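Justification of computing resources. Each target in the renewal requires a structure prediction run like the one illustrated here; the chain below, 171 residues long, is used simply to show the kind of job we budget for.
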Amino acid sequence: MYSIKKSKLKIQKRMKTARLLQVCIFSFCLLNFALSQVPPDKDGLLNADGMGQAKYAEMNGYPGPKHVLDLAVQLKLGEEQKASVQSFYNEMSLRAKEVAKQIIQIEQELNSAFAQGLVVEKSVRNDCEEIGRLRGKLRSIHLVAHMKTKEVLSATQIAMYKKLRSEGGKQ
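Resulting structure tokens:
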């Protein structure tokens, strides 16, 4: 009888340990998921996606380097043009990803401060202003890449680009 009770207690203890482990794993996963979503545009930032940051350029005849490379055949890009646009894209992508990491870090720190109740008005203001400054810098990186791309294209290629982009509904 005593050994049966002892066995039951061991089983109950193991079950409690297993439940505690499950709760810890679930909590870790939940925390990881929450942090991975801050900021909401994290994936786009890390991929150096335009996300509409250069829409004014795009709408006014300043083609984006990524789209020009995607349409290289239709635009009949020469090798030199293609190399230049690839260079603009690579530079833009590298610089945008560097700035994106800074934005994400500050956004996550700000989120964490609120989650932990460790917010102070001055630090919130400073973080928000820095995020705004960095997002402005990121936008300028994308806009400048559009400006550089336009410089190496002919008027005919730009007209074809506009036509192809509008046909694809991606203006």
